[in-house]
UniProtKB/TrEMBL annotation:
Organism in which the protein naturally occurs: Cyclotella cryptica
Full protein name: Sulfotransferase domain-containing protein
Domain of life (superkingdom): Eukaryota
Residue ranges, annotated region (Disordered): 116-141, 147-166
Compositionally biased tracts (Polar residues): 155-166
Transmembrane segment boundaries: 179-201
Coiled-coil parts of chain: none
UniProt KW keywords: Membrane, Transmembrane, Transmembrane helix
InterPro entries registered for this protein in UniProt: Carb_sulfotrans_8-10, P-loop_NTPase
Length: 1245
């Protein structure tokens, strides 16, 4: 018998059976009235495990051959805690000797059936191979099977034969007389007594290495625990921008349970609440806030179910709220129901009874989702959906006395709703497949079936180590009160004809297979219970209940899981604006919508981006689209327009906030007559209260506007045109050229003097993707254009009537006096002339608008002729279209690694993009990436720089190179982001610094930054010395550079540059020969001890191409030389004045005190002598600089250099030969074709 029982369970299940039994009996023991044998077993739970063989006393056979069945009772006042699931023939003798009344036993069992019957039983447990086609994320793709019929080895097979012989004997014994039965029972009783004796002895002499499980030990004594009082919610980290709903959160533990508030991690459970399966009923009893009936007294906490299950269920998974902790959850508790009945209930529950109330409470998002199925297609019941949407023979129904044909689109929606591939209602969409594939593939599953809710709850409680029959016995009337029942459901909602039932079951086939898989994987359900549910399923969907495959493939729901379930570390649907700017700036609230009511993103073929051009009634339109505009609340116009536009318009583009998906189907512009728009923008941008504006908008915006409205005498558009544009003005007000330039910049959008003026039509037109489909809503024809746009996205024609109250003008500039809007004829003529390019862009947008007819376009052109007649008919302008590449980079923003194509000088709807090409450095060293500090921001539009102006910045270390580099836009130790004015920052496209040669060899200019060689060398020595914190230096720069510096600064006695000269260069120095060699090599740059030493003038000069055109900025004459470089590049002669604040020194070595900079006369002489070749390189750079006059070169060499190294300043030759740095150039500077030789600038002999 022992062998017979062991063969039925794998070792793991055998152990688990004992552990579950022992863990539960400590609390249960006092509540049970055991038979003598059962009582003995509960007080003597001994298990000996040696190797893979499990040996148990004979009495233990009962634990091995049964499964828990807490609902069975056996005699008055006596409960059998374990229900035997074998047949009468196998267990008759056991019941006789135990003196226990027999429960209802199976007539056959797996151990005494034929091979064919065994296979049939097995099919109830396991899906056949090949029946699963889940994706990689699908739990369904990893079928779970219990090894109930597996035997460990050939010995077990032999034991099985012995067991079969014993079965034969037992069958024969049933035909004997009562006397023979008594004799047999007596014999077995004697054997039983011997087994008890052996077991007792065995308990006191366990073999070495064995495991003993005792019933009186604490099962969680050494187990990690979870404090539920400080529970974390994974949903918050998966969706950081969303808030976990209150219904998915349990009340604080103190309100539900007495302390302590800890549970064993091995029992942590997550509730998987599939909709319309009594999940709310279960959830309420577990402590969640799911449509739970309120307590009679508000101060009294609502009641929850007793036992361990409410404690151990900590989180929930329901619809698009996945709050399970996959790292520590042991069990996933599914609540399920017959799939056909669930879908019937889901259809009726998801259908709104009061559409207006539903829209108010649930928002437009869910309103439009449901409307597409229930209202637009008119499916009143699930029977109606089946008849008109699924059954091809019936496609018409009577509606208001007329026959209406069901469209092909509605038929498609009907199919998609049942497959769960399109969202029309939460309980439809989030089906069994979604919830099942949403949990980990190796999840341990438990299940509560709606049809057996009390029985399954009890079984789950026992699985968790709790009390048997904790909710009572269902056969004795134990029930659970249901919550969230759809009381509005009529009898017609429940009706399904046979034909409809068949076609729905066929479409539900895949979901039915998932339902069956959940049942089979459930550790709290035995084979019999699974079979019961499948038998129940046969009454509704008989074919699918027994099928293992379906006619239609299982839907691929990977995207659905990503969008709804969410995963840690997944790419979220982020704001495109935040994506462009890498999270540097958050998206303002006014750019968002209420995503409880609206979609975050819809499919690309429906997505609409609203292009909100300033002062075109854009705020009015944005309010009607559902954006969170403060103007909507101020004007009490929070009503959102009906139709599809509010639902499909998910993002907005306004001013410097481009938050649109680049794959949107449409870009919907708000337009207005350009002249009228500019006048309104000017008046709107001019603050009435400057200090209030400064406090609210900040110093940066204040300075933008101050330049035009305060620093220049412009109080109206009329004044700006007369004073700043009209060249024939002869009034008594003097206008500077700067103010005239600002007036022109304000009109054409090249100068930022006000947000509404700066972000003009050209900016928005070029800011959207190339080739985008354009919709237009004209301010002058607001309702007509809204209706045509609604129709273009598939909505109702003429959705807004002439008496509509949705599009009420908001954000109107009420503080502008009427006279500020007036223009004389002469001023209008001049302003239209300067607005010519803007007018042509306006006309271009109208011409490409897909929702406007030719007649509507001509209507707008005729209206334009009234204000700007010449420009309305013109095809070109006298002034070329501005290049706004830099403006787009700075304001619109683009994803990392994307570049704009150079403009072609023509009006363009969208700009072409291309991937950012590899830098010259990355082409030379394909395995390396150019460091961030070597790059400029994309706003500089280096690809637009003319070839004859392209400049390489040669940054020699410790020459104020970081100061110059920051002022021209590189990211070099910059204390501020202030960029110098002029063309130099725009034309300096690349940089060469130390081993980072990132210049184009055909650059027009190479601008060196240089400094007195001796001063540079002193600064370099101190800067490269990491003596202040060696370990920090090693961590930041790595072992390689640590070793470089260690050889000079640590291994040699050189703490100052003066010591290096005295100890390493002087004839009386006491440094070792090796350190003396290193001192000399450090100064002439032939060995690497620090980057600023090693990469010297010789290196940088020989690295640039032979014959390069050189300009130079001397540290000692920074502003003077900057201005000369700017002028040579075509800029202003004195772009930086004496009081400029741009060139403030950056990356200064503040740790260098006077002691570190001090050099004795002897040390200076020794170092200058060793620096001779480097000084000659410095002089050569100066002499070759086209921006320095002969007087300036003499000033640096004769006057300044003579003070530090007079001999070398006069000399043209040195005692030591110029070092050969070929290898240094190849290994550090790098060349694209190293085998072709090196072309470099060398000094003349």
């Amino acid at each position: 018998m022992t062998t017979l029982c062991r063969s039925m369970l794998s070792n793991d299940e055998f152990l688990n059976s004992f552990q579950r039994r022992n863990n539960s009996k400590v609390e249960e023991k006092s509540e049970r009235n055991f038979s003598p044998i059962a009582r003995w077993w509960h007080s003597n739970p001994i298990l000996v495990q040696t190797g893979k063989t499990i040996a148990i006393p004979s009495i233990a056979l009962s634990a091995a051959i049964i499964r828990r069945e807490p609902n069975a009772t056996h005699g008055e006042g006596q409960s059998l805690p374990l229900h035997f699931s074998l047949c009468t023939r196998c267990l008759s003798l056991l019941f006789i000797i135990s003196n226990i009344p027999r429960p209802s036993l199976e007539s056959t069992c797996p151990m005494c059936t034929t091979n064919s019957n065994t296979k049939e039983r097995r099919s109830l447990l396991r899906p056949p191979p090949g029946s699963h086609t889940g994706t990689a994320t699908s739990a369904f793709s990893h079928p779970y099977s219990r090894p109930l019929f597996e035997r460990a080895n050939s010995d077990d097979s032999q034991n099985g034969k012995n067991a079969k012989s014993k079965q034969t004997m037992m069958i024969a014994s049933q035909s004997f007389s009562g006397l023979v039965k008594i004799a047999m029972a007596s014999t077995i009783g004697i054997l039983l007594f011997v087994s008890l004796l052996l077991a007792t002895l065995q308990r006191h002499s366990l073999p070495s290495g064995s495991v003993q499980l005792r019933g009186n030990s604490n099962p969680h004594e050494h187990e990690p625990m979870l404090d539920t009082a400080t529970l974390q919610h994974p949903f918050d980290s998966i969706w950081p921008n969303d808030q976990l709903p209150q219904w998915a959160i349990k009340s604080p533990p103190a309100a539900l349970f007495p302390p302590p508030h800890t549970i064993p991690l091995s029992k942590r459970t997550c509730l998987v609440h599939v909709g319309k399966t009594a999940g709310s009923t279960i959830g309420c009893q577990l402590g969640f806030n799911l449509h739970c009936p309120a307590a009679d007294d508000d101060d009294t906490p609502r009641s929850i179910a007793p036992g361990r299950l409410p404690r151990y269920v900590t989180n929930m998974f329901h619809t698009n709220i996945y709050d399970c902790d996959d790292a520590s959850t042991r069990y996933y508790l599914f609540v399920v129901r017959n799939p056909l009945e669930r879908i019937q209930s889901a259809f009726a529950y998801d259908k709104p009874r009061d559409w207006g109330e539903f829209r108010r409470t649930m928002g437009d998002k869910y309103y439009w989702l449901r409307k597409r199925l229930y209202a637009d297609c008119g499916f009143e019941t699930l029977e109606d959906l089946a008849v008109r949407g699924l059954r091809n023979e019936t496609t018409r129904r009577v509606m208001d006395g007329a026959l209406v044909t069901t469209s092909e689109e509605c038929k498609r929606r009907a199919v998609a709703s049942l497959l769960g591939t399109e969202h029309f209602g939460c309980h439809f969409y989030y089906n069994y497949q979604y919830h099942y594939e949403g949990v980990p593939s190796n999840a341990t599953i438990m299940t509560i079936r709606t049809e057996h809710i009390v029985r399954d709850w009890n079984a789950v409680e026992v699985e968790l180590g709790g009390q048997t029959n904790i909710l009572g016995l269902p056969e004795k009337g134990a029930v659970m009160q249901r919550n969230n029942v759809n009381t509005a459901k009529a009898d017609s909602d429940k009706y399904l004809s046979e034909e409809s039932r068949m076609v729905i079951c066929k479409l539900l086939c895949n979901d039915i297979q998932v339902y069956k898989e959940i049942l089979r994987r459930s550790v709290n359900l035995d084979v019999e219970q699974v079979a019961i549910s499948i038998d129940e399923l046969k009454h509704s969907c008989p074919i699918e209940a027994v099928a293992t495959t379906c006619d239609t493939p299982k839907p691929d729901i990977r995207q659905k899981l990503l969008d709804s379930r969410g995963y840690q570390g997944q790419t979220q649907i982020r704001s495109p604006y935040e994506e462009h700017w890498q999270g540097e700036w958050p998206l303002p609230y006014k750019m968002t919508k209420d995503y409880a009511k609206y979609l975050r993103k819809t499919s690309p073929d429906k997505e609409v981006c609203f292009v909100h051009v300033g002062k075109t009634a854009g705020s009015t339109i944005a309010c009607a689209l559902g954006f969170n505009m403060p103007e909507c609340r101020k004007a009490n116009t929070a009503t959102v327009a009906p139709g599809l536009l509010p639902q499909y318009t998910t993002k907005r583009f306004h001013c410097g906030l481009y938050d649109c998906f680049d794959d949107s189907a449409y870009y919907m512009f708000a337009l207005r007559n350009p002249l009228v728009r500019f006048v309104s923008a000017f008046n709107y941008d001019m603050p009435l209260d400057w200090e209030a504006f400064r406090a609210q908008e900040g110093e940066r915006q204040y300075n933008f506007l101050k330049k035009l409205f305060l620093d220049c005498p412009y109080r109206s558009v009329e004044e700006m045109v007369k004073l700043g544009i009209d060249e024939g003005y002869d009034g008594n007000i003097t206008i500077s050229n700067e103010c005239r330039q600002r007036a022109l910049g304000a009109i054409d959008g090249t100068g930022h003097y006000g947000t509404q003026m700066y972000y003009n039509y050209q900016y928005y037109a070029e800011g959207i993707p190339k080739g985008a489909n354009v919709l237009v809503i004209r301010t002058e024809h607001l309702v007509d254009d809204w209706n045509s746009a609604e129709s273009m996205v598939g909505g109702v024609t003429n959705i807004l009537g002439p008496d509509q109250t949705t599009l009420v003008f908001t954000n109107v500039n009420g503080h502008s006096a009427p006279e500020t809007k007036e223009l004389s004829d002469e001023s209008r003529f001049l302003l239209c002339e300067k607005l010519c390019n803007e007018i042509q862009v306006y006309k271009k947008i109208l011409n490409v608008a897909v929702n406007l007819s030719e007649e509507q376009r001509q209507q707008s052109f005729e209206e334009l002729k009234v204000s700007c007649p010449r420009e309305a008919i013109a095809e070109s302008c006298e002034v070329p279209l501005p290049d706004i590449t830099t403006k787009l980079y700075r304001s619109r923003g683009y994803n990392e690694g994307i570049r704009l194509d150079a403009p072609q000088g023509e009006i363009s709807i969208g700009r072409s993009l291309h991937p950012e090409p590899p830098s010259p450095y990355e082409l030379t060293w394909p395995d390396l990436k150019l460091p961030f500090y070597m790059k400029k921001d994309r706003e500089f539009a280096v690809e637009s720089v003319p070839a004859d102006k392209k400049t390489c910045f040669v940054h020699v270390g410790k020459t104020a190179g970081s100061t110059v580099g920051c002022a021209i836009g590189f990211n070099l130790h910059c204390s501020s982001k202030t960029i110098a004015p002029g063309v130099f920052p725009q034309y300096a496209t690349n940089m060469f610094h130390s081993q980072m040669y990132d210049c184009h060899d055909d650059s027009a200019y190479f601008v060196f930054v240089v400094r007195n060689p001796l001063d540079r060398m002193i600064s370099a020595f101190n800067y490269d010395n990491p003596s202040k914190d060696w370990e920090k230096f090693r961590q930041e720069y790595g072992q390689k550079h640590y070793n470089f510096r260690k050889k000079l600064y640590m291994d040699c006695p050189f703490t100052t540059f003066d010591e290096l000269a005295q100890q390493g260069l002087s004839s009386h120095g006491n440094a070792t020969e090796e350190c003396r060699r290193r001192a000399a090599a450090a100064i002439d740059g032939t060995e690497h001890f620090g980057c600023h030493f090693f990469f010297n003038y010789q290196y940088h000069l020989e690295a640039v191409p032979h014959g390069s055109t050189i300009m130079t900025i001397r540290t000692e004459h920074l502003i003077e030389d900057w201005n000369s470089v700017e002028y040579n590049l075509g800029g202003q002669k004195k772009v930086l004045g004496p009081n400029q604040m741009v060139l403030s020194h950056n990356n200064v070595n503040t740790a260098s005190g006077d002691k570190l900079k001090h050099l004795s006369d002897e040390s200076r002489t020794l170092i200058c002598e060793k620096l001779c070749n480097e000084i000659q390189m410095y002089k050569k750079i100066l002499r070759n600089s086209i921006n320095l006059s002969e007087e300036q070169v003499k000033e640096s060499i004769i006057e300044e250099m003579m003070e530090s190294c007079p001999v070398e300043a006069k000399s043209e030759q040195c005692k030591d030969p110029l070092p050969d740095i070929t290898n240094k150039l190849v290994n550090s500077r790098g060349y694209l074709k190293k085998d072709d030789g090196i072309s470099r600038m060398v000094p003349s002999s």
